[in-house]
């Protein structure tokens, strides 16, 4: 359910059988006659490194216990380095979701969690964060094994952020309170901020643990109970995290984790009549389905964090070397599988040619390989569907007469690796400039002035994020206020502090995650009005 899907425009215009062989057979862009700079790689990867972790949890976690699916079915979890099965995980459906929701409902209505003091809840969350630190290497290895992201990224960046997010929300738990409101008449008015109840949460495959923290953290801090559906591509770390929550003292039924596919388990959760709140991260197309299911059931409130096609704007006064490195990171981070990736690189015409040459050189230096090997910057795409989708977009770019500067081919002969790819001379009406590719494909466009780049940057159905690279404060202020996006990074990118809210404009979503704003997603506001007789003051 959370997987990014191929846009309808792409599937209409490109053959489903397109593959890297199209590019392997050509040394030039046929429309431009310009030689392609070959990405020099080995023809095959070395034997995969054995991950330093055992897979211990493959069942659903419901009401404080690991249990099989009601149907007895399982589905495979894969290693994207090889495409081989590494585990068989319980496959949830409607009956499993019903069991999980019942456990969460009972834990909220009758259990100790909502009745605990906020301070006690915060202590459990802090104990969980300490356990994450203790098991950091194990969790990082599991995350990289199942998702293909570099182990160094998981261990040194994502796991510390994961623990930090829970400590951040633990700090909020005992600071959530209402207000005393002055009334015009003789009445005492107060507001209460109450937990919303049972929260259904559906997380994606690109950042499994981080997305779990973005959703579970604020929900727990506010006193809710949870049914979480992990992505079918990456079910393993959510189950391991559930075990650590149990060790931290979280009462049974407060956090339930169901593995399974979107059309079955995801749809059952979104349409469940006893779920009070739904949060989803994934594609815009799937987000529409989620919103419809929520509306047609019990009109539950919905938070959506969806797709993006973020502009990264390099102004004429930019330090080109620094801009190239930052734009490279903005696009290629996490194999390009990032909803806010700077996937439309707008470069001022005065520095465009220099930027192209240096961007190409940087892409050719990017180290692709086994994510468990030290120094590797880029691992495989998540699965065969995503792998083929990215290659079809690359073919679309070539057929649309964009110039393929480097890459464009499969890396090696095993797994789902793709060479870092750079296109120049990209136009706004090309699919590679319009659709969310979700892969290592950098599209570089030319612009003349600030007004033009504002108009072109905003001419998209998305509005998740943007990057600006300039030395001019006035330019930065003009652009940051004019861009219709939820986050603007100025001379930086992908800064995800726990306190910084994240979410999108337009079809990039509804609501905000992280920071104080995320608490509103999991709270109800109740007004209580009491008469005052002969008050000394109002």
TrEMBL record:
Residues 66-528 form the Aldehyde dehydrogenase domain. The keyword Oxidoreductase applies. SUPFAM superfamilies: ALDH-like. Its main location: mitochondrion. It holds the Pfam family Aldedh. GO terms for molecular function: aldehyde dehydrogenase (NAD+) activity. The active site is at residue 305. It comes from the Eukaryota. One of its GO terms (biological process) is carboxylic acid metabolic process. It is found in: Mitochondrion matrix. It catalyses: an aldehyde + NAD(+) + H2O = a carboxylate + NADH + 2 H(+). Keywords: NAD, Oxidoreductase. Its EC number is 1.2.1.3. Gene3D superfamilies: Aldehyde Dehydrogenase, Chain A, domain 1, Aldehyde Dehydrogenase, Chain A, domain 2. GO terms for cellular component: mitochondrial matrix. Possesses activity on acetaldehyde and glycolaldehyde in vitro. Belongs to the aldehyde dehydrogenase family. This is aldehyde dehydrogenase (NAD(+)). It comes from Populus euphratica.
